[in-house]
TrEMBL record:
This is Cation transporter. PANTHER family: CATION EFFLUX SYSTEM PROTEIN CUSB, SLR6042 PROTEIN. InterPro entries: Beta-barrel_RND_2, CzcB_C, CzcB_N, MFP_Cation_Efflux, Single_hybrid_motif. One of its GO terms (cellular component) is outer membrane-bounded periplasmic space. Residues 258-327 form the CusB-like beta-barrel domain. Keywords: Plasmid, Transport. Residues 41-132 form the CzcB N-terminal domain.
Length: 408
């Protein structure tokens, strides 16, 4: 992890939710934070006129609360025409007007999270215009796209998803009933010659044997009616053929997987549902649809049996192999969701990191239903937002090493 994080660029300095004129550097040369007022807010000064900017959120949604002064003395807030404009990383612009409230000015509207924006403050007092601009980033970092990709960061777009419970099924590969063909002689007789052995691949129309008819004594050929692999050969030269098939040919590409369904899942797992087929070590194999329950069950395991067609064009899966299936039950489509693995803690919130080119910024989420793959988003994220779906813990670590704060 240390080596991975060492490749990331330094985080953008975080001013959190305060700001204003910068204090001089400390005695050792370190940069000091913005000047603070008596309410722990950011001080903005222009001559004798000053504003102390705070975000008040004690038992109420976050709101701007501003304290004006003139010459160091409290100034009647009714004499101040104040406008604050916030410009966010995603292009959203928020404009706040203010009303007097005792010795302060209260912003009309909620300062939604994250409190990360470029701020413009315009105050008009006695006809004189005062203006300030400052950056107020929070939960934000910058990582070049190539560096992010090299360290496993994958970007996806937030949108609809199907969320439900997952049930695991276990089963084995079987040859499909359509994948087995029996080749017989047209008439009973003596086998004169055979051309294929067990395990040989044959093509449709290929010669398999010659038989001397027991009635006419004429020798006639036997051709393969299908392409596939010889599973059985029930005759050698000199043998006499009767009702038993001379050859059994199977098509390895025509396979199914038969899943065991335990009693606790019988009410949830049903024919027709989609199943994701995996190897026992979790590698995805194919998507399939569950067929009807088989008449017979697995008496030894006490389970019912469901069959699903398994695409097997290369013959990779052989009868008897164990496979695993995952079925989503009680599924519902939600309008907005993110990958569950993308979720990270930030202060008292659960967040994802929205992506804007080389920049990443927290998005505080209100969450709904959750599955191992998807989590519903009820608020805090706009549909269509690009976010770090994988590798988000690296972005979190890069932001945390900056020592981000949340001052007001």
């Amino acid at each position: 992890m240390t080596r991975i994080l060492a490749t990331l660029l330094a985080v953008i300095p975080l001013a959190a939710c305060g700001g204003g004129a910068e204090k001089p550097a400390g005695e050792h040369g370190e940069a000091a934070g913005p000047e603070k007022g008596q309410h722990n807010g950011r001080m903005l000064r222009d001559g004798d006129f000053a504003l102390e900017m705070t975000v008040f959120e004690d038992g109420v949604p976050p709101m701007f609360r501003v304290f004006p002064t003139m010459g160091g003395e409290k100034l009647d807030p009714a004499k101040v025409d104040l406008t604050v404009t916030l410009r966010r990383l995603d292009g959203e612009v928020n404009v706040f007007k203010f009303k007097p409230n005792g010795e302060m000015l209260d912003g009309q509207g909620t300062v939604v999270e994250p409190h990360s924006f470029d701020v413009e403050v315009v105050a008009v007092v006695a006809g004189k215009r005062h203006q300030w601009k400052y950056a107020n980033p929070e939960g934000q970092t910058k990582i070049p796209a190539e560096t992010a990709r090299a360290n496993g960061v994958v970007i996806e777009t937030a949108g609809p998803a199907v969320i439900g419970e997952t049930r695991e099924l276990y089963g084995t590969v079987q040859l499909a009933s359509t994948g087995r063909s029996e080749i017989r002689g047209q008439f009973p007789g003596r086998v004169v010659s055979v051309t294929k052995a067990v395990g040989d691949y044959v093509q449709r129309g290929q010669l398999l044997a010659r038989i001397e008819s027991g009635e006419s004594l004429q020798v006639y050929p036997v051709y393969s009616t299908v392409s596939g692999v010889v599973a059985e050969r029930n005759g050698n030269p000199g043998d006499v053929t009767f009702d038993r098939p001379l050859y059994v040919i199977t098509d390895p590409a025509q396979t199914t997987v038969v899943f065991n369904v335990f009693p606790r899942d019988l009410a949830l797992v049903r024919p027709g549902q989609r199943v994701s087929v995996e190897t026992m070590d979790g590698q995805a194999v194919a998507g399939a649809r569950l067929g009807d329950y088989l008449p017979e069950g697995n008496a030894a395991a006490g389970t019912a049996l469901l069959r699903a067609i398994l695409p097997n064009p290369g013959g990779r899966f052989r009868p008897g192999m164990a496979l695993r299936g995952k079925v989503t039950v009680n599924a519902v489509t939600v309008p907005l969701a993110v990958r569950t693995e993308a979720l990270q803690p930030f202060r008292d919130f659960t967040v994802v990191y929205a992506n804007f080119g080389d920049k990443y910024e927290v998005r505080m989420l209100e969450l709904g239903r959750k599955s191992p793959e998807w989590t519903e988003v009820l608020g805090g994220l706009k549909p269509g937002t690009r976010y770090a779906a994988k590798g988000s813990f690296l972005i979190r670590a890069d932001i945390e090493k900056s020592g981000a704060s949340h001052d007001h």
